[in-house]
């Protein structure tokens, strides 16, 4: 990656809110740890790392919230077994 690209990325990141900057940083760290750490992890540790990355993915969280909303209707029908 060229130095110019890095400078451009830094400028774009600086325009984000602090919360979005933190979210981006956490996502990058978790993705990097998953890629680097996978070589020395057991299958269950690797699976756990992948789940952690997925749990932080905003698209996956949005999909899970949509699914939760769909199932919320069944609770009012008396189908939930709380």
Q: Give me the Rg, rounded.
A: 19 Å
How would you classify the helix and strand content by structural class? mainly alpha
Mean pLDDT: 79
Uncertain ranges: none
Number of strands: 0
| Share of residues in strands | under 5%
Return the domain count: 1
State the helical fraction: over 70%
Chain-wise SSE layout:
Elements: H1 3-14, H2 18-37, H3 43-56, H4 58-76
Question: What does it look like?
Answer:
The protein is an all-alpha fold and 82 residues long. Helix content is 79%, strand content 0%. The chain has four helices and no strands. The radius of gyration is 19 Å and the shape is flat.
Give a quick rundown of the structure:
The protein has helices spanning 3-14, 18-37, 43-56, 58-76. The chain has 82 residues and is an all-alpha fold.
Task: Please tag this protein with its features.
82 residues; mainly alpha; 4 helices; 79% helix; flat
């Amino acid at each position: 990656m060229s130095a110019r690209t890095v400078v451009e990325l830094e400028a774009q990141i600086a325009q984000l809110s602090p919360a979005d900057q933190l979210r981006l940083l956490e996502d990058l760290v978790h993705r990097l740890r998953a890629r680097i750490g996978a070589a020395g992890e057991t299958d269950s540790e690797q699976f756990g790392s992948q789940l952690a990355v997925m749990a932080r993915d905003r698209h996956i969280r949005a999909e899970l919230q949509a699914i939760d909303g769909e199932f919320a209707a069944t609770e009012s029908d008396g189908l939930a077994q709380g």
